[in-house]
From TrEMBL:
Its cofactor is FAD. Residues 421-511 form the Fumarate reductase/succinate dehydrogenase flavoprotein-like C-terminal domain. It is found in: Cytoplasm. It holds the Pfam family FAD_binding_2. The gene is nadB. This is L-aspartate oxidase. It comes from Paenibacillus silvae. Residues 396-407 have a biased composition (Basic and acidic residues). The keyword Oxidoreductase applies. Residues 395-418 are annotated as: Disordered. Keywords: FAD, Flavoprotein, Oxidoreductase, Pyridine nucleotide biosynthesis. Pathway: Cofactor biosynthesis; NAD(+) biosynthesis; iminoaspartate from L-aspartate (oxidase route): step 1/1. Belongs to the FAD-dependent oxidoreductase 2 family. NadB subfamily.
Length: 521
């Protein structure tokens, strides 16, 4: 079995699969470098006695703005608690209070159901525990610093992948099942909370192979990333607002009461757009996050990573208001899967942020992503158990959309780094938090001019990453132009209302086909 990616989805799926299979895990950097590592808030699961799966279901459906698949959400909320218990068995050390699991609350959750570790380092603790297990496992091989170029199909089935090795050579890895756990697409945007590796590789590969991708227009922007000269766009967790922080504009005024009755705990898309509105109204580049009214001891204990990072740049959370602004954070859409995590291509699975299981709808509820990876990782392994062995190829023609096989003049007008930055800036301006038809069409026209890049012979990782970003930018932009309404994380200034009569449906995209609309069942 082949697992592509090493976040929580890849690590957990590999561990579960290793009970019955040999597993090869391929990661383009290292086991510890993924979006999971930077997840601060925690993992959502029904643990408290006053909570229930029904409450968690309702919260998720409300945040998802009418596009969640209710069956998938039911799977998440009912199987999530057992997934958490499994993480604990695998060595994850969640925070405790009085001997019980410590729970906090985040935006749009009705109950305290967020487990955390080391205060605000939950993702890192989960990856640490799972990586130890993977390293020590006798039937899991890990290839660090390897890049998967393309998926390989044979008679409509995925039979493995073409891999770029560290020395520049390529190898075909044949596998009974291939699981994409390659994360999201934050690097589409100039400002993102994601690491450099989040270049949409999995979605682009699956799309090239002919898989259906769904709801790519829904990109979640986290409302509060650190916005300070010399500092990275570091995530300031939702949980800071969950513990009582206020949002203030540069005049010092709290403003969320103008935008939503839940104030700072409103859904992310609403908070993010409210912040952009206040930034424009006050002619500034940020707003403030203020938790100075809470006790310094609580702040330092609950948010040690955020506290220390801010201190590194001369900002003390206990006494200073922290300048923040929205940044690209999470991709709600992705490779369409069924409830077993299988894509439209047999033997190709997707898990975690790269997938579209139907859990998140138009707007992910905070801390559901880690739960989703665990729950559907286990389901993928159960499905793979029932797969027959791969038939021998017998000289049949195997298909790859491998860009390296294409021939064209390799004349490049700009270095890849410049192309990537230009793409990121355009996506922020034209396909960001607030969209309109004119800007989206301009972005699509600009992308159309750049698409010939995909016909060149691409041999280096930075070229392949840029090609994947370009492919994903096309999917996001065309999906956003097609959806003529505002829903969840997708906001159109020219269609500001949610329109269930016309648009309570999914957008499906497949290679060489027009966008297909799929009504909610």
């Amino acid at each position: 079995m082949l697992v592509i990616g090493s976040g929580i989805a890849g690590l957990f799926t590999a561990i579960k699969a290793s009970e019955q299979h040999r597993v090869l895990m391929i990661t383009k950097k290292s086991l510890l470098e993924s979006n999971t590592r930077y997840a601060q808030g925690g993992i959502a699961a029904v643990i408290a006695e006053d909570d229930s799966p029904a409450y968690h279901l309702q919260d998720t459906l409300v945040a998802g703005a009418g596009l969640c698949r209710s069956e998938a959400v039911e799977v998440l909320v009912n199987e999530g608690p057992e997934g958490v218990r499994e993480l604990i068995r695998l060595g994850t050390l969640f925070d405790l209070e009085n001997g019980e699991l410590a729970l906090t609350q985040e935006g749009a959750h009705s109950h305290r159901r967020i487990l955390h570790a080391n205060g605000d380092a939950t993702g890192y603790e989960i990856v640490r525990a799972l990586a130890v297990e993977v390293h020590e496992h006798p039937v899991i091989d890990v290839w660090d610093e390897h890049f998967v170029i393309d998926l390989i199909t044979d008679q409509g089935e995925c039979i493995g992948a073409l891999v770029l090795k560290e020395d520049g050579s390529k190898v075909f890895v044949r596998a009974k099942a291939t699981v994409l756990c390659s994360g999201g697409a934050g690097q589409l945007y100039r400002y993102t909370t994601n690491p450099d590796v989040a270049t949409a590789d999995g979605v682009a590969m699956a799309y090239r192979a002919g898989a259906v991708v769904r709801d790519m227009e829904f990109i979640q922007f986290h409302p509060t990333s650190l916005c300070y000269p010399g500092a990275p766009r570091f995530l300031i967790s939702e949980a800071v607002r969950g513990e009582g922080a206020y949002l203030r504009n540069v005049k010092g005024e709290r403003f969320m009461e103008k935008y939503h009755p839940l104030l700072e705990l409103a859904p992310r898309d609403i908070v993010a757009r409210a912040i952009v509105s206040e930034i424009e109204l006050t002619n500034s580049t940020f707003v403030y996050l203020d938790i100075t009214h809470e006790s310094p001891e609580m702040v330092k204990h609950r948010f040690p990573t955020i506290y220390e990072t801010c201190m590194r740049y001369g900002l003390d959370m206990t006494t200073d208001w922290i300048p923040v602004a929205p940044a690209a954070h999470y991709m709600m859409g992705g490779v369409k899967t069924d409830l077993s995590g299988e894509s439209s291509i047999p033997r190709l699975f997707a898990c975690g942020e790269v997938s579209s299981t139907g859990v998140h709808g138009a707007n992910r509820l905070a801390s559901n992503s880690l739960s989703e990876a665990i729950v559907f990782g286990r389901r993928i392994v159960e499905r793979i158990e029932s797969l027959p062995s791969l038939a021998p190829s017998l000289g049949r023609d195997v298909k790859s959309r491998n860009m390296d096989n294409r021939s064209a003049e390799q004349q490049q007008s700009k270095p890849i780094s410049e192309k990537r930055l230009s793409l990121q800036k355009m996506m922020v301006r034209k396909v960001g938090l607030r969209r309109n038809g004119k800007n989206l069409q301009q972005a699509l026209d600009a992308l159309q001019q750049e698409l010939p890049f995909l016909d060149q012979s691409l041999n280096y990782r930075e070229e392949l990453e840029y090609a994947n970003l370009l492919t994903c930018a096309w999917l996001v932009t065309s999906g956003a132009l097609h959806r003529e309404e505002s829903r969840g994380a997708h906001y159109r200034e020219d269609y500001p209302a949610r329109d269930d009569a016309m648009w309570q449906k999914h957008s499906l995209q497949q290679r060489e086909q027009a966008i297909v609309e799929e009504w909610m069942s």
